[in-house]
Structure prediction request, 132 residues.
Amino acid sequence: MNKSMALKMAIENATPISGVTTEIFETEIQQTSNDIIFDASNINFCVGPCKSKEPEALAITLGNNTKLYQFKPYSGKRYLECDYPLSNNFSLIIKNYRICKSCNDRYMELYDEEDFDKLIKDGKNICKKLNI
Prediction:
């Protein structure tokens, strides 16, 4: 399977982040050789900057047999990737992740406000949390 086919499949199976256009999922985050890339596929707790390392609770089954999960995306799928700057020169790129609502809201808000100092601080806290 080539890279573009794999990306297309990932996009089709991913749940979009609220307020973010699909176009972001169709283009990869520009990576530099200094970036730290972390695959969170096997992480069962929030990968955001909160202090919690509690595993995600079991999904709640609603009346129509729909499952609702604790972390975002609530469908139980995983977001493709997010980018926390660690300095002006490199970033922490987290792939295949699930995140609590509080950390997700903070991430979206800080990017909207272009508060890169707080994003850098959050990125460093995440590195400590994930032992990177």
